[in-house]
Amino acid sequence: MELQLKRQSVAINETLCRTTVEQPIECDALLPDYCPDIVKILRCEVTPILTGNQVSGSQLTVDGVAAARVFYLSDAGCLRSAEYKIPFSRVVEIKPSSSRPVVRVSPSVGYFNCRAVSPRRLDLRGAISLSILVTACREEDVVAGAEGMGVLTRGEEREVTRVTGQEVRPFTLREELELPSDKPSIRLPLRCSGFARITDKKQVAGKIVLKGELKLHVFYLCDGDDNQLDSTDHTVPFSQILDVDGMEEQTRCIVSLQVSSLDVQPKADPDGQSRVLALEAVLEAKVLCHRNETIPLVSDCYSTQYESSCQQKTVSLGRLAEAVDESHVYQESVDLPDGAVRILDLWCRVQGEEFSAEAGKATAAGRLLISMFCSMEDGGMEYFDKTEPFTHEIDIDCQRPMEFLGEFSILDVGFTSSGSGRAEIRCEIGITGPVYCSEPEAVLTSLTVDEEHPKEKDPSVSLTIYFADAGENLWEVAKRYNTSMEKILADNGLTGTVIGEKRSLLIPM
User: Which ranges carry the LysM domain (predicted)?
Assistant: First the structure.
């Protein structure tokens, strides 16, 4: 019988680029005409927002906007703010690939300085840090089985995960929200934040049906009084159907949300009062698709009839161990800063992100930056912040080497004054992302049998006694004596392929 080889295409997730680059941000800005002059800058808050990326050959282009909001005191001692959107683009060299790559970019603020050159002119300087990971699925052709010419193979089935694609789907929410009856009318929004959360997800026929909510917080200047500040919170539910190319019934999708744009404008109600908020928010749903496959792998072979040779290669086979979708709640009672009477507004962001996985456990760690505006005993206003470290651990059913490609998002922030110069602060942090486990596997890439050189056998020998040591592998024993491992197992009443203790073996020839 001629040699018949069965070949299999195996998906190998290959890293094309893993780097961190610093992107300078510069802006010479003027205050809008409707803003009063600057007397004192309290805070410059910078949020990096990615607007897209594109791979062309050996280059990755990352586009984004650094949204800088400057909070300052006017000559009347009132809090004001102005926002500036500074676009940026960065080109990074990557290893070219014939397949569609999966791009992951995590932006963070490296440093940022804001200086008032004059009462109406600002100098903004800083840098955005971009952590970039680009991977692609490479096909490796391996031997999955062989028959004929006395060939025996050693192999087993392995479950691997193929990353089938990545999609980014933006959608827009538009809503008109009325202020609660106990809130004063709005003159001007000073700071707005939106937190997007997925409450339900279903996969049907190449589509993902998302249900969720956007929590909106608006800190604003009240109408009719330059010194009166207030805030309002609203929850906007949404439902969205996302088309995902190539998604099948068995595809496992990880979906995360990002608020890429948030605009809130005051609007008059039927009575002419500025008590309506016109909201326009752009959300981006990022979908990462996986498909599990069970593949037969051959790691070694030999022929009992002819001389043979094979080529082996070590590859790293990855599997999706866990699709993390959890939250971590930070809650603490804190003392107000010295001289502070009460908190006017408070918000949070995560810095110093660190994700790791080992020994059956994934860890997400970071530093929570808590920022606040406070009214002071002297009647003024100041900005304060504090940093709190946090760690969140997740049990993972895998003891192999792992990698956690996580990301954080703020899901909710709140505070209440507890009296006696203290406040209760609560922040919910979303943690999402895949945990991949991998292990090097020896695979067979080629096999040749030389039928012109048959193996010599002694017809007078039908059985050999072999004294095996504990821990010896029966496959290696069978290969050495040019026989079948299955025959050794049957003749010796064994079930395992590794010798448990030192003993003699009957080797059929």
Answer: 471-507
**pLDDT value of position 211:** 97
Radius of gyration of the CA atoms of the chain, in A = 32
Rounded Cα gap, residues 382 and 380, in angstroms: 7
Burial of 497 (0-12, 13-18, 19+ CB in 10 A): middle
Q: What angle do CA 46, 48, 50 make, to 5 degrees?
A: 160
Q: Is 14 helix (H, G, I), strand (E, B) or coil?
A: strand
**Structure tokens of 325?**
């979708």
pLDDT at 1: 65
Quote the CA–CA distance of 391 and 407 in Å, as a whole number.
13
Residue 275 near residue 144 (C-beta atoms within 8 A): no
Cβ–Cβ under 8 Å, residues 214 and 236: yes
Is residue 259 a contact partner of residue 289, using CB atoms and an 8 Å limit? no
* 457-509: CATH topology: Membrane-bound Lytic Murein Transglycosylase D; Chain A (3.10.350)
Collapsed DSSP state (helix, strand, coil) of residue 378: coil
* Pick from 439, 436, 93, 98: nearest CA to 288: 436
DSSP letters along 220-244, please?
EEETT-TT-EEEEEEEEEEEEEEE-
Q: What are phi and psi of 476, to 5 degrees?
A: -65, -35
End-to-end CA distance of the chain: 21
Percent of the chain with pLDDT over 90: 64
- CA dist 68 and 88 (Å) reads 13
Which residues of 74-185 form beta strands (DSSP E)?
79-93, 102-118, 121-147, 151-178
CA distance 279 to 237: 13
Q: How far apart are CA 419 and CA 491, in angstroms?
A: 83
- Residue ranges covered by each domain of the chain: 13-135, 149-304, 307-452, 457-509
**What gap in Å lies between CA 106 and CA 91, rounded to an integer?**
15
Yes or no: say if 297 and 156 are a contact pair by the CB < 8 Å rule.
yes
pLDDT single digits (tens) 397-429:
988 899 999 999 999 999 998 767 899 999 999
CB 55 within 8 Å of CB 94: yes
Closest CA to 338 of 292, 370, 384: 384
d(CA 224, CA 158): 70
